[in-house]
Amino acid sequence: MAPKKLQFRTTLQLPAGEAPVVDLGKMLGQTGVNLVEVKRTYDAATAAQRGDIVPVVVSVFDDRSFELAYKTPPTAFLIRKALGGKGSSRPGHETAGVLSQAQVTEIATRKLPDLNTSDLDAAVRTIAGTARSMGVKVE
């Protein structure tokens, strides 16, 4: 049997465990893939992370089958979640909050699989840089 040909690939950022069919339809409707099955698969795989935004890479093949590759939540989302609010409207001028070193390390540990480093110290520096660009002070 010949290998399947990739027809379409996109990355979607959806709420974990409750993907809206409307958003799936906007991005995947033209591919002819079964949207309800994509939703069911995504919701089952991300049910444990409810309340988070979980990016997923959706690959649709020429026989209308699909494959989902899950990523870790965006760094900015994890920082906002740790703060319990949002970033500064004027980064560098106003501080949106303070993250402890332990919180930054926890976020870096969670993001490590998706970062371009395997070193935890480099990951911590990357997360701290993102926090600073959002107007968040790191202790």
Going by helix content, strand content and strand pairing, the class is: alpha+beta
Helix content: 25-40%
The number of distinct helices, counting runs of at least 4 residues, comes to: 5
The overall strand count is: 5
H/E series:
EHHEEHEHHE
Radius of gyration: 18 Å
Fraction in beta strands:
15-25%
Report the sheet with the most strands, covering strand number, pairing sense and barrel closure: 3 strands, antiparallel
Q: Give the neighbour order of strands across the main sheet.
A: 1-2-3
Spans of at least 5 consecutive residues with low confidence: none
Q: Say what the CATH topology of the largest domain is.
A: Ribosomal protein L11, N-terminal domain
Globular, elongated, flat, extended or rod-shaped: what is the shape? Answer: elongated
For the record, the CATH class of the largest domain is: Alpha Beta
